[in-house]
Structures are given as C-alpha cells and as structure tokens.
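My hope is that you will study the protein record below before we discuss the fold together.
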Amino acid sequence: MIKLQPPLEIMCDVLHAPDGRIVALDLHYDEPHPAAYRSVTRRLQLASLSAAQREEMFIHQLLSLESMSALLHRRQWLCSIALDFTLAQRVTESAFIRQIIHHLPFLRLSLSEDFPNLHDGIENPLIRALSEQLNILWLSDLGAGYANLNAVQSHIFEAVKLDRRFYVENVHKSVFIMLLRQIMQMTNRLIIDGVEDESQRLMLAQQGIWALQNYQYASLPLSKISSLPE
C-alpha cells in the first residue's frame, strides 16, 4: 500500500462541450512524487490505498465540494468522483457520508467498467443501492474490455466515458462513427478523453458528443477552479 503524506491536493480534470463551454469537473488525486519528478503526474489509483485511506480521501473530497457549493451552483457545473467496490460499499453503509452527498445535487458517482458484476445493471444490489439512495451514476472506461454494453443499455448511467486507450486505438477506423452513434442511442451524455486535434474535435461536435476531457484545459487543483471561465 502506498504511504500518503497528507494533505494531498484534490485535482480536477475539466470536462467541456466541443464548443469550449465547461460542463463538469472530474475529481481525483495525483500520485505523490518527490519534487524532482513532478513533471510526470499519474492519477492515484484507489487500489493502491487501504479502505480507511479511500474513505478518508473521499470524505475530504465531499467536504471540499460542500465548501464550494455556491460557486458550483452558480456556474452549473457537475462534479464526478470515482468509486470502486470497496468504497461503494462503505458509501451505502455510512449515514454520515450519505448525509453529505444528499447536500451535493451536482455530484455524480462514477463507476468503472471493471466494477464487479457491472453487466447485471440495476439487478446488482450494490449498484441498485447507489442508484436509488444516492446521486446519479456515471460510467467510466467503457471499451476497456471488462464488460459488455448491457450496463449501458439499462439506462442507469446519466453519462458514459469511453476508455482513453479504446478511443485512441479506434478513432481513425471507418466504423468508429457508427460505434459512437450506437452508444449514443443508449446515453445522451458521452464523454471522450484523448482527443488529439481540431479535426477530431470537429468530428465529435458533429456527432453530438456531450463533453471532452483533457483537451482544452489542463488539470488544476479544486481550490483554483474559480480561475476557469464561466
């Protein structure tokens, strides 16, 4: 397990429409590195943390969002936070966590495609509990190879993000636009990470993609989001 030296700074990836309008922030932590290596940053993976660390950092994210709720309401930005199975269980069990979440209507809880038994959709008891008791769910990493489209077809996810590697490997193929259209029949909010240039941005805009991630804006600390354009 990784040893953390608190406090780690909450970072945000900016999600914006193809026309540049910001629609959401994806919260995460970067791996802690010595100063000499900070030019190379990687997202901190939940699997590298203990259950107690995951819960502590999740609560830190929630309370930080609560303190910035006025700004987020005014700008009408959504915020997503990733959950793995262990943390999702804790979220449904903790009255304290649920109470905070209920005060954050702009929060979205994001499940990865490798979430256990994701293909069961709403029949998965944990996913059903998250969907019914808490905030709206997003699905990330679609196309990573862990699950099929059954979970997307169940319409329990408000937004779906394609796996970055899947996008980069397939965007130049002739069948890619057909695939996009198939997915967008199941969700009207598709997020693309890995856009490389203006020609891809224009193509995605023509297809009605909801948001791009890591294209127009660099990641920035949550404490600095007031510097972003409205």
Q: What stands out?
A: The chain has a mean pLDDT of 89. The longest strand covers residues 22-29. The chain has nine helices and nine strands.
